[in-house]
Amino acid sequence: MREAVTPRLRIDLAGEWELTGWRQNDWRLGLTPERAKVQEPDVPSVPITVPGSVRGALERAGIVPDSTVGAQSRLSEWIEHRHWVYRREIPSGASNWIREHPRERIILECEGLDTKGVILVDERIVGEFEGSFTPHRFDITESIAAGGLTLRIVFTDLPDGLGQNGWTSRIRQFKDRFSYGWDWTPRLVQVGISGPIRLVASVGMALERARISTDYRADPGTGSVTIDVSACAIPTAAVASARLTGPGVDLTSTIPDHGHIVIPVIPRPWHVRPKGAQALYTLTLAVHAADGVTEEREFVVGFRELMWAPTEAAPKGVDDWLCLVNGQAVFLSGVNWVPIRPDRADVPAEEYRSRLTAYRDMGMTMIRVWGGAGAEADVFYDLCDELGLLVWQELPLSSSGLDNEPPTDDAFAHDLARIASSYAERLRHRPCLALWCGGNELTRVTAPAVPGRPLDDAHPALAAARTALEVSDPGRRYIATSPMGPRFEADPAEFGAGVHHDVHGPWEWADSEESWAAYWRADDAVLRSEVGVAGSTGMGLLAEKGLLPNVPRAELRSVWTHSSGWWLRTFDDADPDQPIGAWVSSSQERQERMLRIAASLTLSRFPRAAGFLVWLGHDTFPCAVSLSLLDWGGQLKPAAQGLTSVFAGDVRCTSDR
Fold first, then answer.
1. Which residues, 6+ apart, have CB-to-CB distance to 234 below 8 Å?
2. Intervals of the chain under pLDDT 70
3. What is the dihedral of CA 551, 555, 556, 557, to 10 degrees?
4. Max Cα separation, the chain?
5. Looking at residue 605, what is its pLDDT?
6. What are 555's strand-pairing partners?
7. Are 629 and 637 in contact (CB under 8 A)?
8. Which of 181, 368, 599, 625 places its Cα 20 to 30 Å from the Cα of 221?
9. How far is the first Cα of the chain from the last one, in angstroms, to the nearest whole number?
10. Cα–Cα distance list, 522 to 153, 536, 543, 607 (Å)
């Protein structure tokens, strides 16, 4: 994590906990005089590492099988129908602190609780939570002062009906939707502590509302950092200071009157895909209290000028999509990002680095964080800052097939705005963050399963998100949804009519490769933010994950349908006597050729065309066939190598020229 808080008391609760599973509400009966009836949990105690998911712990304990093999994911769906208790002892440092500082408060900070439940100290309920995408805080001072020794976090009810096919208008809960089943993953719904968790003293939270922003002008190469602590609870007698260090810079300033300060600087600029090491700077804010105790908070920042300009010969009414970074027009070569695993609490940092480094090396300049899931872990944004990858960050809304329009009432708009503000408070200082988007494929449909016309920010929830972001992160671009403009997809019959702005698709092509090339030669879209072609996973991973059983071809199709049912047309059309290995090779070669054709022809239209983003970057689950460039294990498919030949060496795919 690249942002750190050092209050006067900070106890990290990550590490080993104990997990038990209960029939629904048995644990509640255990808080009553009838506790003898429920002495034993339904799932006995197993160790769990926090952050970490329930399924991950149960797989390690041998209670459920590996969900990534064959159709074994079905054998863990019962996890959703139990209540799960995470338990650990409260470190003695907390009670010692209360005795020494009786006027202070002890706060339990949880950055990720997925999804709903209660907090207990011993047998006393001290708080409730709901919502996966915002942090939670609980004051547990009285319970610790009274001698409380044990902390329990109980996960109870999960929402349902969040999968790919349904009604966006009926979905009010905020949780990773993809994990309920999408065309590239079966149902694997996460439960658990999904982010950092700690105990802090309230006196150590003075800087939590600090606002940081940077400014840079490529010509003449000057910048500044603005620090605003006016909303922070800094003691009157304390002194607040800021120190900026990094390449060629070491500056320290006092922040006057606990207000704000602008520090001029001549920095090295942050670049998209820099030639060498990225220019990153550390900003350290400090509060020096009268008793000599210091609180510090660090931010890693960068200095870059990012502007949006009209594309060449832009059609009437289209938004500005030409991305200028430090005065250089950058082609938005990129991928659509989905979580690396459904149980993303269990993903180690090296998995993020391997995928993001692969995308950088392919020549990708932008990562679109798709709205069917929440914002990513801090390590994702750390790496995008370091590698020079622009981030298109969506709010957690997505289409649903049968309808695609979010609820319009005030309560839902308020909930979305609260999430938008929370995202902005966490991410606004990051140089990688290029724009906000209200969500994925939000449209008004006239009949089920038709694309519909993209919404704009006249929609109440999307308008509320815009307002929240204008307050929390002023100056950053916001778009209501993607695609945007008059059309969802590009229709060849309308090429030349100026109606294809930001469009999605195609994701597959039933005609010849010659007609595919003709389509892209005639294309007039300003931005292609989702384009896909299906391709098989390699034989090694297919065998490893039980996807090559010795069965007739029709039965093999049934096995593959578990994760890949949408994408088996070319398998169905193939010669039934063709060996599977030969079909896998031809499928991968077809994906490589078709994506390379589409990408190279789109790049050739730059700056009329602003970008080309592939759906999708990597597999979340071992799919037999998918639209990904990287398989479940992070290995490059041939299509990734083909796109590398298009983008990696092109100067239009970097700002460092």
1. 206, 207, 240, 258, 287
2. 1-7, 203-205, 291-293
3. 170
4. 82
5. 99
6. none
7. yes
8. 368
9. 30
10. 57, 28, 41, 16
Cα 433 to the center of its chain, rounded Å: 12
CATH number of this structure's domain 210-301:
2.60.40.10
Three-class secondary structure of residue 387 per DSSP: helix
What's the burial of 16, exposed, middle or buried (CB within 10 Å: 0-12/13-18/19+)? exposed
Would you state the pLDDT for residue 379?
98
Residue 527, token pair as written in the block:
């931005």
Q: What whole-number distance in Å separates Cα of residue 94 and Cα of residue 11?
A: 8
Angstrom distances, CA of residue 11 to CA of 203, 204, 206, 207, 442: 14, 12, 17, 17, 42
Q: Answer for the pair 300, 382: CB distance below 8 angstroms, yes or no.
A: yes
- With residue 126 as reference, give the H or E element that holds it: strand 124-130
Residue ranges of domains in the chain: 4-203, 210-301, 331-653
The residue type at 410: D
Q: Is 5 left (phi over 0), alpha (psi -120 to 50) or beta?
A: beta
pLDDT per position as a tens digit, 372-381: 999 999 999 9
Residue 609 tokens, joined? 């065309």
Residue 381: CB atoms within 10 A of its CB come to 28
Instruction: List, in sequence order, every residue forming a beta bridge with 109; answer none if it has no partner.
Output: 137, 198
Q: Which residues of 126-142 are buried (b: 16+ CB within 10 A; e: fewer)?
A: bbebbbbbbbbbbebbe
How confident is the model at residue 203, as a pLDDT? 64
Q: Please state the φ and ψ torsions of residue 109, each to the nearest 5 degrees.
A: -105, 125
Q: Give the strand pairing for 332-337 and 366-369.
A: parallel
Q: Classify 209 in phi/psi space as left (phi over 0), alpha (psi -120 to 50) or beta.
A: alpha
Give the burial class of 649: count Cβ atoms within 10 A of its Cβ; 0-12 exposed, 13-18 middle, 19 or more buried.
exposed
Find out whether 518 and 598 touch, Cβ atoms under 8 Å.
Answer: no
Which CATH class, in words, describes the domain spanning 4-203? Answer: mainly beta
- Is residue 452 within 8 A of residue 442, CB to CB? The reply is no
Tokens for 582, please give them.
């030969």
- Closest by CA to 385, choosing from 245, 275, 277, 246, is 277
pLDDT at 204: 61
Backbone torsions φ then ψ of 234, nearest 5 degrees: -90, 130
Question: Per residue in 481-491, pLDDT tens?
Answer: 999 999 999 99
Cα separation, 384 vs 387, in Å, equals: 5
What is the second-level CATH architecture of the domain 331-653? Alpha-Beta Barrel (3.20)
Q: Do domains 210-301 and 331-653 have the same CATH topology?
A: no
**Pairing mode of beta strands 306-309, 211-217:** unpaired
CA dist 407 and 396 (Å) reads 13
Rounded to the nearest 10°, the torsion over CA 542, 544, 546, 550 is 80
Amino acid identity at 77: E
How many C-beta atoms surround the C-beta of residue 538 within 10 A? 19
Pairwise CA distance, residues 513 & 517, whole Å: 6
Residues 6+ apart with CB under 8 A from 270: 216, 278, 279, 280, 302, 303, 304, 385, 388, 431
Tokens of 649: 């060496």
Strand runs labelled E in 348-481: 366-369, 390-394, 401-403, 433-437, 443-444, 453-454, 477-479
Tokens 């070491």 appear where? 250
What's this model's pTM, rounded to 2 decimal places?
0.96
SS3 label, residue 325: strand
The runs of H, that is alpha helices, within 525-579 are 539-544, 553-564, 569-573
